[in-house]
């Protein structure tokens, strides 16, 4: 496992800028089973050179907006929220199963199992809404399998050791309701692999 690098589109995220994203935010206070699974994963990986996402920053990425956040004014942000909200209004809330943590080349992820197809439909509608508001070139859609990041590697780590520690948690899942998505303004620190954000707007499913 190698150190993780935050990306802006397909290149390293430049210092000094923030980027708008659309996330499903995993609120551990509302989801105690997921909170327990996250705590178990952190405990299993204790001492490894990993930065675990804090309780307030766990999320599933649906879309990154390429335009630096300081170039998207209030009207532009409202347009994103409106266009995404219109496309999600006809969808019913649902839930996904999150868990079975596993190592990847730069960190540890949770799978999205039950409900992944419905969440992928949400991702497509979010991308269409962002494109309608900002133009197609602004959309940095994620084409990889949907997931929730558990931690990012700060330095080289032993893949086999991580797999061994996570083995007892494989095939262990927790529910996560998907009843809204959130537009957020994301700040990262490359040096210690930290992520945080400022909320901008929330768009509900089933609001139509």
Describe this entry's structure for a reader.
26% of the residues lie in helices and 38% in strands. The chain contains four helices and twelve strands, in the order E-E-E-H-E-E-H-E-E-H-E-E-H-E-E-E. A five-stranded antiparallel sheet has the order 8-5-3-11-12, covered by helices on one side. The protein has a five-stranded antiparallel sheet with strand order 4-9-7-6-10. A two-stranded antiparallel ribbon has the order 1-2. A hairpin with a 2-residue loop joins strand 1 and strand 2. Helix 2 (74-88) runs antiparallel to helix 3. The longest helix has 19 residues, at 116-134. The chain is globular, with a radius of gyration of 17 Å. The model has no long low-confidence stretch (mean pLDDT 95).
Note the beta-strand portion. Answer: 35-45%
CATH homologous superfamily (4th level) name: Cyclic phosphodiesterase
Number of helices: 4
Helical/strand content category = alpha+beta
- What is the CATH top level name? Alpha Beta
Total individual domains: 1
- Spell the H/E element sequence: EEEHEEHEEHEEHEEE
Q: Order of strands in the sheet with the most strands?
A: 8-5-3-11-12
Number of strands: 12
From the N-terminal CA to the C-terminal CA, the straight-line distance is 45 Å
Task: State Rg.
Answer: 17 Å
The backbone outline, from C-alpha atoms, is globular
Low-confidence stretches: none
Largest sheet: 5 strands, antiparallel
As for the CATH topology, it is: Cyclic Phosphodiesterase, Chain: A
Q: What's the mean pLDDT score? A: 95
Q: Can you give the helix content as a percent range?
A: 25-40%
CATH architecture: Alpha-Beta Complex
């Amino acid at each position: 496992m190698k150190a993780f690098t935050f990306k802006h589109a397909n290149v390293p995220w430049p210092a000094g800028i923030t980027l708008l994203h659309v996330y499903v935010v995993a609120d551990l206070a509302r989801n105690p089973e997921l909170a327990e699974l996250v705590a178990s994963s952190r405990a299993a990986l204790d001492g490894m050179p990993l930065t675990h996402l804090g309780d307030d920053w766990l999320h599933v990425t649906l879309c990154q907006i390429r335009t630096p956040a300081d170039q998207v004014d209030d009207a532009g942000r409202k347009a994103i929220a409106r266009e995404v909200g219109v496309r999600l209004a006809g969808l019913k809330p649902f839930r996904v199963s999150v868990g079975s943590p596993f190592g990847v080349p730069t960190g540890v992820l949770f799978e999205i199992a039950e409900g992944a197809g419905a969440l992928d439909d949400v991702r497509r509608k979010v991308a269409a809404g962002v494109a309608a508001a900002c133009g197609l070139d602004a959309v940095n859609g994620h084409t990889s399998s949907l997931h929730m990041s558990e931690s990012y590697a700060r330095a080289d780590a032993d893949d086999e050791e991580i797999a061994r520690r996570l083995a007892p948690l494989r095939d262990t899942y927790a529910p996560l309701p998907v009843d809204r998505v959130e537009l957020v303004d994301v700040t990262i620190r490359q040096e210690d692999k930290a992520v945080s954000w400022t909320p901008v707007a929330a768009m509900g499913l089933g609001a139509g």
